[in-house]
Amino acid sequence: MKYAIVVSGGKQYKAVPGEIIQVDKLPQEVNDKVVLDEVLFIADGKKKVAIGTPTIKGAKVETIVTGQIKGPKIRVFKYKPRVRYRRRQGHRQQYTLLEVKKIVRKSGEKDGS
Questions:
Q1: pLDDT above 60 for 113
Q2: What is the pLDDT at residue 45?
Q3: 55: burial class by Cβ within 10 Å (0-12, 13-18, 19+)?
Q4: Which of 16, 17, 70, 83 has the fewest CB atoms within 10 Å, i.e. the most exposed one?
């Protein structure tokens, strides 16, 4: 299985060609192309791997935005006993769905579909 480990928004994601990854919200619209160029690791499915120090120069992952969604609602509740202090707050994180099109090692080499 070919895959790459990429960084988006300070978090690391496993990108497999043809699959969808859920990253923190990006300012792009649906069907826009997004290139993730902070690639930390690439495996080609055989015994060949490339490990960056800290990133692989010239490597990138090409994706397309497939949607913008909201995550599940999280309740934040603060409480202090004996002083009648109670605060309830909700939060829904926004995410961008990216479909991984291909993994490019250097200028000419391509992995994926």
A1: no
A2: 79
A3: middle
A4: 83
